[in-house]
Amino acid sequence: MRLKYFALSFLIIAGMTYFSVTQRTAVPWFESSSSAFWSPSSFSRSVSQPAFDAISETLTAARSESENQKNSALKAIEETEAPLHFAPAAATHTWNFSGTGLKESEVSSYLQNTPPKAIYFFRGNELVPISAPLGYDGDLTQYLFVSDLNTIQDIQQQREAQAEQEQAAGQDAQAADRDSTDKDSLEKPLPENAFEVVSFTAGKRDDGSVLVPVNPNILQALQGPDYSLEPFNWRDDGEMRAHLSTILSFGHGGELVLKVSGQGYLKNKAGFDFALYENAFRTGSGLNVVQEFARVGVSNSLEEDFHWFPCDPLQNILSGCLGAVPTAEGGDQFDLTVVGLTEARYIKIQDLGINKNNTSRWPTEGCDLDAVRLFHAYTQE
Ligand SMILES: [Ca+2]
Ligand SMILES: [Ca+2]
């Protein structure tokens, strides 16, 4: 009897949730809380993990079925013996991961609620797109970006090669030195955090509202890097707020403009000139990284065009993206040589507006910038 009641309860929960997702008007009382219900933090508190996983899997499976199959599933819910018929559907995989090297279990939490248009898995030098199932009505503008270990290493090697090339050729650095021989004697180095916020235009949250940063003091949030591999309890509001206070989430399409403090400037010297740290993190396997990308540009004035580092994930170009390399593994390093500048005073960072994140009630959409470090910032004495 107990088993039967459990099965029935499961069925009712799955049924109501299914209705609320697919036919929102059918269960009006549920709609107001549906997004909160689906946030991992609130949901996992009220339902055990196995039940959560089972329901999630059932929903994911059911959503991708053809219309007829959906109707059959709905009919099954209404029937008393439904658990026996409905349960096997939970095992049906809706995204085709076969041959990609990526496991659905690693990214399953990103496929719930409003799933992405596609998963772009960067495997070595190859871009492996994983398309959403046919008939799937997820978000049509967002992509879930995931890179494997080799891709991260390739990005780091590409960047280092560019920096080494600069040292070997020495052209840009020497040109800069020639131009500033007199200036050199008058300039003094600035600390790595000698930057100011010129402007921040927050992007959108998944629900269309404008993101409000957890920490309104952006300059404070951008100190660090603070992100570490130390685990924290993301179900605890206090711990979560403390964690999010150390980063700046951009929101979809958000833009940040920084400048070197006072009359300071970044100089193209040998090696990397500045670094940005996004809180990209490894998935369960420890081999893959979930990424939210932003593009990065530099210039000497706000009036002139910005020079952009190469970043176009949809075309498999990641070497100049912010959000590629996890903070704990060195973050994203930038060299002015790549954009052909000898000096720069401004750094502009734009969230690409197409990043799928793990939706929750916290304002974490878009790229999350943890810290900025200027290696070659100078000012005139
Ligand atoms: Ca350099
Ligand atoms: Ca920080």
Q: What's this entry about, in short?
A:
This protein has 13 helices and 18 strands.
How are the SSEs ordered, and which strands pair?
Layout (H helix, E strand, L loop, with lengths): L1 H21 L5 H4 L2 H5 L1 H7 L2 H16 L2 H12 L3 H5 L17 H4 L10 E6 L2 E6 L11 E6 H21 L1 H9 L1 H6 E3 L5 E7 L16 H4 L15 H8 L3 E2 L5 E6 L4 E3 L6 E5 L2 E2 L5 E4 L2 E6 L7 E2 L23 E3 L8 E2 L1 E6 L16 E7 L2 E4 L1
Parallel strand pairs: 1-3
Antiparallel strand pairs: 1-2, 3-11, 4-18, 5-7, 6-17, 7-16, 8-15, 8-18, 9-14, 9-17, 10-11, 12-13, 12-16
Bound molecules: calcium ion (CA) (2 copies).
Task: Give a description of the structure.
Residues 175-188 have a biased composition (Basic and acidic residues). Residues 156-174 have a biased composition (Low complexity). Residues 156-188 are annotated as: Disordered. The protein is an alpha+beta fold. It folds into three domains: 2-91, no CATH class; 104-146, no CATH class; 152-380, Galactose-binding domain-like (Jelly Rolls, Sandwich). The chain is built from 13 helices and 18 strands. The chain has helices at residues 2-22, 28-31, 34-38, 40-46, 49-64, 67-78, 82-86, 104-107, 149-169, 171-179, 181-186, 218-221, 237-244, and strands spanning 118-123, 126-131, 143-148, 187-189, 195-201, 248-249, 255-260, 265-267, 274-278, 281-282, 288-291, 294-299, 307-308, 332-334, 343-344, 346-351, 368-374, 377-380. The strands form four sheets. The chain has a five-stranded mixed sheet with strand order 2-1-3-11-10. Helix 1 packs across helix 5 (49-64). It is globular. Mean pLDDT is 79; it is low at 1-8, 14-47, 62-67 and 73-93. Bound molecules: calcium ion (2 copies). One calcium ion (CA) binds at residues 221-224, 226, 246-247, 370-371.
